[in-house]
Amino acid sequence: MRHGDPRLAACLPGFEAVRRYWDEGESMAIAKILPGEYYVTAQDEQIVTVLGSCVAACIRDRVLCIGGMNHFMLPSITGERLRDERSEIIGSATRYGNYAMEHLINAILGRGGQRKNLEVKVFGGGKLMPALSDVGERNIRFVTDYLAIERMPVLASDLGDIYPRKVVFYPASGRVRVKKLKDVPATTVLGRELKYRDAIQDVEVQGEVDLF
After folding, report:
1. Residue 70 CA to chain centroid, in angstroms?
2. Is residue 212 domain-resident?
3. Can you tell me whether residue 108 is helix, strand or coil?
């Protein structure tokens, strides 16, 4: 369906670029996010993504029923940058992960959510091809460490394994559906993620993000 479908209520400001469409079977709007994107809604709609090595965090305020999902991968750090041994270089990948998580959290808190009411569920981090370095494991370690440091308990997770996943999040209820795509070639998902990883390789995150 086109972006201008009259059945689609306006999205929250700042999320106009995210692809949304009306699903006849579900009778609701669906927002589909790609690597590097996130989406927050106060409506009864779905947020959908497909994960390989990337990780998605589904976060909602259980009182206001405002929630969202991100889809991110830590950029790799080249050997040359590691040999530099400066903390700001070595920490750039972690800063990128912080950026992805904090923007999602801030978008919820900035619309009235409260940290004490946040629920978190995390998914992804698969190792789709044995020959590749375990990017998925690095993403899993980051998101679990981040949530532990921020004292945000994880209500549910499905992490690791060797299959791509389709994740469907219903922020209004907090429900998440996960399907492991065993019949989908890993290269289909992996190619998109590797393209994304190459695009963010060694790119510094600009500015700081403060939590409310």
Report:
1. 2
2. no
3. helix
Provide the residue type at 94 as one letter: T
Query: What is the reported pLDDT for 36?
Result: 86
Distance CA 108, CA 4 (A): 25
In order of 25, 75, 81, 139, 192, the CA distances from 160 in angstroms are: 30, 18, 28, 10, 18
Convert the pLDDT of each residue in 19-68 to its tens digit: 999 999 989 999 999 988 999 999 999 999 999 989 999 999 999 999 99
**What residues make up the domain containing 167?**
19-200
* Strand ordering across the sheet containing 46-51: 19-23, 28-32, 46-51, 165-170, 175-180
Q: How many domains does the chain have?
A: 1
The enclosing domain of 133 has a CATH number of 3.30.1330.200
Kindly state the average pLDDT of the residues 176-204: 68
39: exposed, middle or buried (C-beta count within 10 Å: 0-12, 13-18, 19+)? buried
Which of the four pLDDT bands, split at 50, 70 and 90, describes residue 5?
confident
Asked if the structure places residue 88 within a domain, the reply is yes
Structure token pair of residue 160? 């690791």
pTM of this prediction exceeds 0.85: no
Query: Would residue 178 count as lying in a domain?
Result: yes
The DSSP symbol for 72 reads B
DSSP lists the bridge partners of residue 167 as 49, 178
Residue type, 19: R
Identify whether 79 is part of a domain: yes
